[in-house]
Fold:
Amino acid sequence: MLLHGVTNQALEPFSDGRARDERKTAIAVFLFALLLFAPTVVQFEARTTDLSAIRILSGDVLYRDIWTMYAPGSIYATAFAYSIFGIHMIVGSVLGVLVSALAVAALYRFALHVTSPLPAATASLIFAVAFLGAGYQNAFTSYPPAILCIFVAAERVAVHAGTHRALDLVTAGFFLGLAA
Structure:
């Protein structure tokens, strides 16, 4: 089977002898993005997610007492992190940086299904720089988690194209549901 000129072997890149090298490269891409985003972790800006999380911890109820157009996942996750680590702006920044770096690595994994490692890494680098320029990489708003979930879902669909396992589509659907 061919998907845009890519063979089944490329559709399941982590199943053959290249698995170790490609996992190492995916980890390297994550670490590169983490290093790229890390200096911004101390650029604090109170966002809707942070303020809503603080209000939830003080007893307010989302969508009843707090109006927001954002999905509840990142707000409740931030509230949970604040309940563990304390209400400090750096908590949301660290979460944002980690999830954003994971999104870059997830893009790399997805890109491996449609191209070779060098173009996949290049696309991931371009995405990381664009993400940095957009300013969302250091905040745990709805965007970084949604982007991460979308890339994970896309990677699962690409795997399904080569394996035809129903579980891959179920997993993709789960992550798309989380992204919403």
User: Anything to note?
Assistant: Residues 61 and 86 are 19 Å apart (CA to CA).
